[in-house]
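Sequence in, structure out. First:
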Amino acid sequence: MREVQAAQPQRQGPMLVMRLMAVSVFVVAAVAATVSAHAQGHHGPGMGGGAHGAMTMFDGPPGQIGRAVDQMLDGLNASAAQRSQVKQIAMAAAADLKAQHEATRRMREKGMQIFTAPSVDAAAAETLRQQMSAQHEQASKRKLQAMLDIAKVLTPEQRAKIGERMTERQAVMKDRLQRMEQERAERGQHPPAQK
């Protein structure tokens, strides 16, 4: 009886290592896909909502950032000084985040190397996952700081108006997504999402 119990952990050892490696590969691939989508500007609604929201307001060339800021401030009776301050905050955040985007790209490449290697190094995959998580956290903090700085420039009424716009745009996007899912279901591509 003791021999059977002793042999069982030995068989589980290699299986456990294989499971950990498989999970690590999956995590690296999932993190790489998530970070890739993040780097390409596929974010949730930001202060301005939609594709020109606060999250994407911090990505891209100066002209694009300026247009995103202007779009966010249109209809808010923002002064020229407010517009200038918000643009400066957004441009500074974009400059800080540009280096982070490059680091993220290099990490995605490293993740692909780990994943496609003849033998997947689970420890390297975990280290990379931790690095990517820390990188994402750093970018998230920088974006939040920029949003807080922008909030200091705007009046409570202006921030409330932006909140109303976000709510309206989120409702429009939710309706659009539901229609698209229904159309796919009608074509037999996949079932509609549950409400």
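Second:
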Amino acid sequence: MTIKTLHEAPTDDELHAYVDGRLDPARRAVVAAWLEAHPERAAQVEGWKRDAERLRALAANPERWPANASLTPAQVRRGLQARRRRRVGIAASWVFAFVIGGGAGWQMRELRPSPSNLPMADAVAAYRQFAEADAPPMEFDTAAPMICSAGCCVTSARPGVYPISARPVTG
């Protein structure tokens, strides 16, 4: 081994192959020498080896494994029934909310304003009066001068006679 190979850090894949015993003998010797030079990584790899040995011992005798109580048929049926009850409960709560909302809406329809008390009912009536086809046409005398007083414009029936605060509009 050269000094260069002693200082080459093995990859994690190589370390795991070293733990599993699947590394070729030449590279295994290089990784072992590198681990001797790096005791903190050697301790980590040693922990991996202990974990792998425990897993292999457990997997070697599956009949010795403790029984999983949650996988018994009775427990699976209870779980399915509980899930079904939850779903039915959720559906029932949706139906209940819909019925309560519908009932409240039906009762609230009584609180709507009646057509006689509608806001702007007088304005609607005035519009209908002037919008009817048989209503007389509105006539304006465009020859009479317009008089504006405090924002209100009127036509004067007598030319030349104006209210005190009014002035004739020209143009």
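Remark: The two ends are 114 Å apart (CA to CA).
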